[in-house]
């Protein structure tokens, strides 16, 4: 089953083209890694798919529901607001910088959206949140506040918060970029475990070893386009593309 389809996505800011004809698809249970240099458009692509930014033209479908397509004049035409909100419920997003509510406890950070958006009872939402905290090895932090947690712990709470909404696809925007190197491993371990459970994921990452070991498919972006895409073996071990080879050269020499 196709969870995500994006076709010929274009996006510019102040006359600068950031995405120039991006097309990709993700099927159920697949892990897609998106790699590339800073400024290549990776995070913008995620923001457009998750409705944090709008596209200029192209087409995006989530779980078979059309979010946006190009109208007769070639510009993006979004579905109505109610449908956009409904489609957004298929998606979970984990940010670089955690984005936890600082004045909420860990437990409330996780239960707030299920109660307010999904209209779950507080009791059901809390039971689910505590199970997720156990999964994240944070059972003892339910009553703590974000400022009392390490960066790695905050990011694990962010992952639990995203999972609490039962998304069909989970997006990670460089989930380890704000962490010290010693904390990066614990987040990558969580994502590996989710991959083993066949969670559908799109991961923008600078962790090349993680991308090679965990992803089913890898996209290499540069200057707003997909330069190359394929299996990890194809990109990391057998690429014929000079730009991909140059980007990966330091990684391959390590």
Describe this structure in words.
The protein has 254 residues and is of the alpha/beta class. Helix content is 37%, strand content 27%. The chain is built from nine helices and eleven strands. Strands 7-8-9-3-10-11 form a six-stranded mixed beta sheet, with helices on both faces. A hairpin with a 2-residue loop joins strand 10 and strand 11. The longest helix is centred in the last third of the chain and has 16 residues, at 181-196. The chain starts with a strand and ends with a helix.
Task: Report the biggest beta sheet as strand number plus sense, adding barrel if it closes.
Answer: 6 strands, mixed
Output the structural class.
alpha/beta
How far is the first residue's CA from the last residue's CA? Answer: 37 Å
Runs in which pLDDT lies below 50 for 5 or more consecutive residues are none
Helix content: 25-40%
- Judging from the principal axes of the Cα atoms, what is the shape? globular
Indicate the mean pLDDT: 94
Number of strands: 11
Give the number of helices.
9
Work out the strand percent: 25-35%
Q: How is the topology of this model organized?
A:
Blueprint (H helix, E strand, L loop, with lengths): L1 E12 L2 E12 L3 E5 L6 H8 L7 E6 L2 E6 L5 E3 L2 H8 L2 E4 L11 H11 L5 H14 L15 H13 L5 E5 L7 H16 L4 E4 L3 H7 L2 E6 L2 E6 L1 H6 L4 H12 L1
Parallel strand pairs: 3-9, 3-10, 7-8, 8-9
Antiparallel strand pairs: 1-2, 1-4, 4-5, 5-6, 10-11
Helix pairs in contact: 3-4, 3-5, 4-5, 5-6
Structure keywords:
single chain; 254 residues; alpha/beta; 6-stranded mixed beta sheet; 5-stranded antiparallel beta sheet; 9 helices; 37% helix; 27% strand; globular
